[in-house]
Amino acid sequence: MITIQKLHKEYNNKIVLQNVSFKAKKGEITGLIGPNGSGKSTLIRILLGLENSQMGMALIDGKKYSQLGDNPFCIVGSFLDSCQPYPTRTGFQHLRWIGLACGVDSNRCKECLELVGLSEAKNKKVKDYSLGMKQRLGLATALLANPDILILDEPINGLDPEGIRWVRNFLQAFVNEGKTVLMTSHYMSELELTVDHLVGISNGKIVIDAPTKDILKQFGSFEEAYFKALEGKEGE
Ligand SMILES: Nc1ncnc2c1ncn2[C@@H]1O[C@H](COP(=O)(O)OP(=O)(O)OP(=O)(O)O)[C@@H](O)[C@H]1O
User: CA nearest 22: which of 206, 222, 229?
Assistant: First the structure.
């Protein structure tokens, strides 16, 4: 489980996250939406120990990332849009390099390439991968140490419909094993099909935190729910 509790973050006196609290539960895909600059990536970076917050907590199974032990990759796998593989390495070399850092052997690297459908492209250089192939490689990297939790920043960005469908099916099978996913995306209608729970953020504040089925029952779509929630906040 991922627990975000009263998180507060400022950069140069500009508030980016304000009293943000929510949970991403086991057995569920939780989607995090919000416009550009609303604080989604900052929240994820805090969760992964790449940034500090001024107040509040971001916990993975009750612990800060830095308290997860010698091999946090076994507990949580992540995919950050900003982390690009070295372009002249092959897909396999990229995984092998990360695998060596987290105690994973070359068979598991091959297995992960197979899982994401990149076996045939394993000896191709990353610079020759399409965007969709790079996204798949990012997912393979997150899965390398067989974690129970995935934290994915924009995993479907730029994917074609087949790729998006593949990621959806993959993540749903992942949480059906009792695992946890937290993912961000701008594609609201795709998230309707993918996530079990939605958290909406605007100007660093939570504006939605509800199960998908309740949102769709009440508003018909994530888009309607999100913009209604913003109207509600404007009136406060
Ligand atoms: N290292 C930093 N120093 C100063 N300001 C930052 C830094 N990182 C992020 N910000 C600011 O924090 C705000 C939130 O950025 P963040 O990247 O978290 O938003 P986001 O919701 O992920 O946006 P997007 O959807 O465009 O990826 C933005 O105003 C951004 O300029």
Answer: 206
**Is the Cβ–Cβ distance between 69 and 143 less than 8 Å?**
no
Per DSSP, which regions of 67-196 are E strands?
Answer: 76-79, 149-153, 180-184
CB neighbours of residue 139 within 10 Å: 25
Cβ(90)–Cβ(125) under 8 Å? yes
Ligand 1 atom closest to the Cα of residue 154 is 27
Amino acid at 182: L
For 125-182, what is each residue's pLDDT tens digit? 999 998 888 989 999 999 999 999 999 999 988 788 888 998 999 999 999 999 999 9
| Ligand 1 within 6 A of CB of 34 | yes
Distance 36 CA to ligand 1 centre (A): 8
